[in-house]
Write a structure and sequence with these properties.
The termini are far apart. Helix content is 20%, strand content 37%. α4 crosses α5 and α7 packs parallel to α11 (367-374).
């Protein structure tokens, strides 16, 4: 390997398989950075009536945009005689002239790709997804389609690679929709599934017996798995969105029609997620990928309209009517009219609904609708009539038009260019894509929109200096993934503008980073980028460990000298900075060797679900290097990290030593404990240098590896700031004054004594390998985290705006108590939150209009998600005892999990029997705390020691909280949860609920009189 190369798509997954054998590596797909790939030319359109050409559905070049159109009447009948004069098309608001328009009709022998992606699903939605998948497969033509099945379960996992065997596909679908999501058959997320192992074998098989197209498709899937893992590790978006973005980016190199069918249980979007959805739409359209979104929740599509109507009329009881809600679940009955926890106080409300406001329709729409409509796909909701959407789906495969035009782009600025199609022919409906990003033609590596202005900056001869930042490259030597380097870019928060949101009490920064590596000839060989929206509680931004935003990537490199070009942009402060630097990758030595030594800035916890091949990974943490070689005065403990490359297993056990040198004088040399090695690969070493305070001076750390008579060394240098001279010098000049006045002999002697005593004190430094690089928080840290969460939890409901939403509850029963669930009821309610009081009105029960009060429903329903549960646990009177349990990841974000217990004497948690008698019980549970924002992301409550006379053996409730954008602000809102009961000897009850369509009340819109309404209609 002589140059920095473009890794094959399979490399990271290949090392994942090796990772089962090598201590350094994890068995997950690597976050490999695929470098530039050859650009694909755009073939010319074919004549009408021919089989679909092997071109993306929308392809942008310097001169032309091509897209497909599905045209039908309003009743759904296909239009087969469309002419250019029947349409007006605008690109970014400017009319364009079609250069081609032709009909594609009938089935095809071409290889088109259909990727089925399943998000995590609850039992009810999982069954709906399985049924919908079977119906979709039936309407897809028998010839010309390959199918793959993936599941987002901890990471993007491959259950079935490309196949034309639909029976095999449905078996994989059954596995993806299994209610046992963590079954032994699937194994740990750190293990490769059988389909993934076979995928690796296919990409590695260069024999003539392996079809070239099969290998190309396999590499496509491998690339998607790698890309998804990398995006997921960035922890800046929902896991499912990372999968869709990765699939869109990876499929850009494959020609033909490409469909991604995404099965989800709703999708909640804060402002960052909405930006991610828009990015997915643009990337999918550029790659010719059509996304069909399947919402597996059973809420009817018409409920949104009913909700608005009920809102305007203040519900079925009339304007200003009292919408009674369950004030105490214990008093009114819980579960199936028997028992349950009164979690939260709900008051009767008589609200005047004469004023309300809505976000724009684009803001209100489900992100799933935007994904589908924006890419020319269809959106299907479980429970709605399927005849029309299935017909439309089939038509989009077999009867559609291909159109082309010249967009006249003058500035490839990365902005989104909307495409609007206005039918001039009466009575027709056109289905197409929403637009694309104005990204310049590239080398095939897939430029992302936010990269465009940064790449423009790097093309300038004089680089801006508005933001100061640091970069560094570590040469880690040979690993199973190749000769590996690690790039780190660190931007101080002091250089970035912080936005304070008084509505949500959050601080936000938004930074974009692009880094390019060029070889000695100036050719681009690698590009890395990250768009970082970061939300923190204001006090969290001031913590030392949060003073930098870091982008960290690893890459394969051959020996040579490279140029690193880096640009950063502060979106809120409208500032940029850029720099160029060089680095060298050394040739791989033949004997034992050591990688570069990295000083450790911090160690980020890594959960198993985001583990991958990362050469900076050590046990349960990822090393973040310190790029500043000037450490502050008072530095105490210091950790170092490097890789040990020993000789093969037949050789002797390697010996490792480390020496610390200050101002040219050795403070000691000591042997280091090195784990046994079988020579199978690089061994990571993390050592902590402990002792007294490092006295100011210049330091060098030198590690030496000896094996079979051969020796290798590696060094790292740094200085410790301070008032004492940093270097040894003759006595008469070592401590001379800088003010011009002479220093007395006694003062010089005192300084010399201080230096000597400090050096002697630190000559007994202890260097030890870290057994637990990310230890659990100390008792003081636990107290700090819990108290911060307590303050936010108790103030949370007071900070919420007045809003309303839809609550959907699915009621299921398991008579045997062995997991054999039977769906019984679905209730849809309008939930209002006004002046810190919540109330509910039933809109539908099992698909039929209903005005039952919540207390009249014959199954468990949830009250108290908007503050009641928080108060049960965090109110000081509960005296809850918290114990740290683990670090975890929820919705792609790191959280700290705490267990809690509340004793009976302090409990406000009550159960009630048939006689409505309330009986308080002790309870325990878990809280998942987002330490960046002090927010509760999930809470569970389980009753303890339930009295036998209640007839309830067990009861528990769990609620998830997600950031939801309402009127341009991100609020933490409950999104889904479940209430479970076990009654009698065996019967179990499960009630899954979900909150949707959050909208805010306001005073900007008023209900019009009949005359005013008619007047507006006439004017329009």
């Amino acid at each position: 390997m002589s140059v920095l190369r473009a890794r094959s798509c399979s490399s990271a997954f290949q090392v994942a398989l090796l990772g089962l054998l090598v201590p350094l590596m994890s068995a997950l797909p690597g976050a490999a950075q695929s470098s530039a790939e050859p650009a694909q030319p755009s073939p010319q359109p074919q004549a009408a009536g021919s089989q679909p050409p092997s071109v993306p559905s929308i392809a942008t070049t310097v001169d032309e945009v091509s897209l497909d159109l599905v045209v039908r009447t309003k009743s759904g009948k296909p239009i087969l005689d469309l002419k250019p004069s029947d349409l007006t098309i605008t690109d970014n608001g400017s009319p364009v002239k079609l250069t081609d328009l032709h009909l594609v009709q009938g089935t095809t022998e071409s290889d088109h790709l259909v990727t089925l992606v399943f998000d995590r699903l609850d039992p009810g939605p999982a069954k709906a997804a399985r049924d919908l998948a079977a119906k979709l497969l039936k309407v897809i033509p028998d010839q010309g389609y390959h199918f793959a099945v993936l599941q987002m379960n901890g990471r993007l996992r491959l259950l079935q690679a490309w196949t034309t065997d639909r029976e095999t596909v449905m078996k994989a679908v059954a596995g993806a929709t299994s209610t046992v999501t963590n079954s032994a058959a699937q194994g740990s997320v750190s293990e490769l599934l059988p389909a993934e192992k076979q995928l690796i074998a296919t990409t590695q098989d260069d024999s003539l017996s392996t079809d070239f197209a099969d290998r190309a498709r396999a590499r496509l899937l491998l690339s998607a798995l790698e890309e998804s893992q990398r995006i997921l590790e960035d922890q800046h978006t929902y896991p499912a969105l990372s999968a869709l973005l990765a699939l869109s980016r990876s499929e850009r190199t494959i020609t033909g029609r490409k469909f991604v069918i995404y099965f989800a249980q709703g999708l909640y979007a804060d402002t960052d997620a909405r930006d991610a959805v828009k990015s997915i739409v643009g990337q999918a359209n550029r790659a010719g990928v059509t996304i069909c979104a399947i919402d597996t929740n059973t809420m009817n599509q018409q409920v949104g309209d009913k909700m608005m109507g009920a809102m305007a009329m203040a519900g079925p009881t009339g304007p200003g009517g009292a919408m009674a809600a369950a004030n105490s679940l214990g008093a009114s009955g819980y579960g199936r009219g028997q028992s349950g926890p009164p979690i939260g106080q709900v008051m009767d409300a008589a609200q005047n609904m004469s004023s309300f406001e809505f976000d724009s329709m684009d803001e209100v729409k489900s992100p799933l609708i935007n994904l589908a409509s924006g890419t020319g796909g269809i959106y299907i909701r479980a429970g709605a009539s399927l005849k029309k959407p299935l017909q439309q789906f089939q038509q989009s495969l077999t009867e559609y038009y291909e159109a082309a035009y010249v967009p006249g782009i003058k500035d490839y600025n990365g902005a989104f260019r909307p495409i609007e199609i206005h039918p001039l022919r009466k009575g027709i409906v056109v289905q197409s894509r929403a637009g694309y990003f104005a990204v310049p033609p590239d080398d095939g590596s897939g430029i992302r929109p936010f990269e465009v202005p940064l790449l423009s900056i790097l093309a300038q001869p004089k680089l801006p200096t508005g933001i100061a930042f640091r970069t560094g490259v570590l040469d880690l030597g040979q690993t199973p993934d190749g000769n590996t380097g690690v790039l780190a870019v660190q931007v101080p928060l002091s250089q970035v503008q912080v936005h304070e949101d008084a509505n949500t009490h959050l601080s936000t920064v938004h930074l974009s980073i692009v880094a390019q590596i060029r070889n000695e000839k100036g050719a681009l060989v690698q590009r890395f980028s990250e768009d970082v929206p970061r939300h923190e509680a204001p006090d969290m931004l001031r913590l030392p460990e949060n003073q930098f935003i870091t982008m960290q990537r690893h890459f394969s490199a051959g020996p040579g000298t490279y140029t690193l070009e880096t640009a950063v942009m502060d979106s809120m402060g409208n500032k940029t900075g850029a720099e160029r630097s060089t680095f060298t990758i050394a040739a791989t030595p033949h004997g034992p060797s050591l990688s570069d030594i990295a000083l450790v800035r911090q160690i980020e916890p890594i959960h198993a679900e985001t583990a991958s091949f990362d050469p900076m990974r050590y046990m349960n943490g990822r090393i973040v290097p310190e790029l500043n070689d000037e450490l502050p005065e008072g530095t105490k403990d210091l950790s170092v990290f490097f890789l040990v490359h020993s000789l093969p297993a037949a050789s002797g056990q390697p010996q490792l030593t480390m020496q610390i040198v200050r101002n040219g004088q050795s403070l000691g040399k000591m042997p280091l404990e090195l784990s046994k090695t079988d020579g199978m690969g690089a061994l990571p070493y993390l050592g902590t240098i402990s002792g007294h305070v490092f006295p100011p001076g210049s330091y060098k750390i030198e590690a030496t590896l000896t094996q079979d008579g051969q020796t290798a060394t590696s060094t790292a240098s740094f200085t410790v700031e301070g008032s004492i001279a940093a270097q040894s010098a003759p006595a008469e000049t070592a401590f001379s004054a800088t003010t011009g006045s002479a220093e007395t002999a006694s003062e010089r002697a005192a300084d010399e004594h201080l230096v000597t005593s400090a050096a002697e004190a630190n000559s007994a430094f202890i260097i030890a390998s870290s057994k637990d690089p990310v230890p659990p928080p100390t008792p003081n840290q636990v107290h700090t985290i819990v108290e911060a969460a307590r303050q936010r939890a108790l103030a949370w409901s007071d900070a919420l705006p007045n809003f309303f939403c839809i609550e959907v509850t699915d009621h299921s029963v398991d008579p045997s108590g062995e997991g054999d669930w039977h769906h019984k009821d679905t209730a849809i309610q309008l939930m209002r939150y006004v002046d810190r009081q919540e109330s509910r009105t039933t809109l539908e029960l099992n698909g039929q209009k209903s005005n039952l009060e919540a207390t009249d429903l014959d199954f468990a329903h949830s009250i108290g998600e908007f503050g009641g549960m928080f108060r049960l646990v965090f109110d000081p009177s509960a005296k809850a005892q918290f114990t740290w349990k683990e670090s975890d990841v929820l919705d792609g974000q790191p959280v700290q999990v705490f267990a809690f217990d509340v004793a009976l004497a302090n409990s406000e948690f009550s159960l009630a029997g048939l006689n409505a008698q309330q009986i308080p019980v002790a309870f325990h549970g878990l809280v998942y705390l987002d330490t960046a924002t002090h927010s509760i992301r999930r809470i569970t409550i389980t009753a303890d020691d339930i009295p036998e006379k209640l007839g309830v053996r067990a009861t528990s409730i769990s609620v998830d909280y997600t950031w939801v954008a309402i009127n341009g602000h991100d609020f933490l809102m409950p999104t889904r949860g479940a209430v479970s009961l076990r009654e009698g000897k065996r019967e179990a009850v499960l009630n899954e609920f979900e909150f949707r369509n959050y909208r805010r009340f306001g005073a900007q819109v008023r209900i019009l009189s009949t005359a005013e309404s008619k007047g507006i209609s006439t004017n329009n």
